[in-house]
Amino acid sequence: MAESKFLSSMRRENLRGFFEASPTAKLLRSDLAPLILDFLNRTFKSGGSISIGQAELRTALTVYQDELHEAEPDVLIGPPERYLTQWSDAGWLQRFLESASIEPQFQLTRFSEEAIRFVDTALSQGSSLVGTESRLRLVIETLEDIVRGASADPDRRLEYLRAQRATIDAEIAAIESGKSVQIYRPSQIRERFQTAVNLLKDLQSDFRAVEERFQLIARDVQQLQASGNDTRGEILGYALDAEDTLKTQDEGISFFAFVAFLFSPAQQTALSKNIGEIHQLAALADQHESLSRVRRMIPALLAEADKVMRTTARLSATLRRLLDARAAAHRIRLATVLRDIRQAAIKLGKAPEDRSIQLEVDTDAEICSPMARTFWTPSQTFTDQATVAHEFNLDEAKKIATAFAKLQRIDFRQMRSKIREATIDGHRTLSQLAEDSPIQGGVVELLGYLQIAHDDGHAIDPSLTETISIQESNGSMGSIKVTIPHVTFIPKASSKEIGRKPR
Prior knowledge:
Elements: H1 2-21, H2 23-29, H3 33-45, E1 51-53, H4 54-69, H5 80-89, E2 93-96, E3 105-108, H6 110-123, H7 132-150, H8 154-176, H9 186-226, H10 232-240, H11 242-248, H12 250-262, H13 265-278, H14 288-295, H15 297-349, H16 394-405, H17 412-422, E4 428-429, H18 430-436, H19 442-455, E5 459-471, E6 479-489
Antiparallel strand pairs: 1-3, 2-3, 4-6, 5-6
Helix pairs in contact: 1-2, 2-6, 6-9, 7-9, 9-15, 10-15
């Protein structure tokens, strides 16, 4: 009973943490969630694009805003760049650079994929077919496959194969004797087709999570190399085993097995043939959107797999470059020492034979004062204390963990980037910056801007004040007004990665 209560309590805490900290929950709870999800789904999912350049995505958002303002002129009225920056900061879009591109690229994160999948499932509950029979059959077949594949008993495997052969022989005999062939009813065809399409949607959404997992694994290896606590041989082992490390993780094993299966010419040929026959079924004639998704299935999956593989290849190349940089530094230092030795040998070779080497040691006399010796002190005594068992307060620990999860993180690097972008055309005050890019982190974020202004040499005039209205960071709809010294951000001010403590 106590264990059940403990598990129930832990689940409640996990749910609270999810709804308070998860970017997926924040997206679903956002006031602009319908518009954001509609734009992301139309641009990335319906458009069949994995990543989009910044200029193209900005243009697409501008077109979407123009269409929206014809019916709702008061929503989504800000500049597209601001929304793309906010969505990237919130974890709904991933911004990255590719070697073949001169501008930043954007793609969906696993959090936005989860939100789109959840909304699609919720909206399709009343309109799409609920395939209970096909899903039950899929569950049963999957469980049977697990039991069969996990068993190393040859007798069980032979028993299964003989049963399969008996079933096939019976069906062949029935057809040869003139009996009618049992086929699926139209409802069964539609039910199984809908199950396959839903699985395909989930599969395409899972690639972002797989790619993110690979990046985390490679980042761990990079941190081990950059720490400087390991020997050169250990760093060499990390770098050479980086790709193998990716492949030995559960996600890596499953993904590379998927790639081997999908890139097989025989599998592609069989899959293309089945897709062609699917389109000829009269029972699926009205499933236009699903048929279109299935038609694009092979190129879409190949593109997704190629994107993840290029990411892993780029990460492996980065690790090897780190190793090459460390090895090059060792070679340069060794070459410098050898050059110095050769130059010294040349000088000594030209010296006369009777020249002697003199060594002169100059040291100061060491004087010890007898008064520097300390007085005798008695040894420290300890009193015996009875040990007391420590009792763990679970409720207090939950409160501390909940409070820790609610802490607002200040990203100084992102805030400095906003300041640089805002001051491209000239000086900007803190109030103007807050108006163009609303403060999301409450008073803590506002204090962060003051810290940056102090550390980076921007203009702070204590004789003047300005009042800024910001939203409360506790999730309520209210706002608070904060009066601060007048701050003016100067273009091209010096910036640092980590701010100093205020004086």
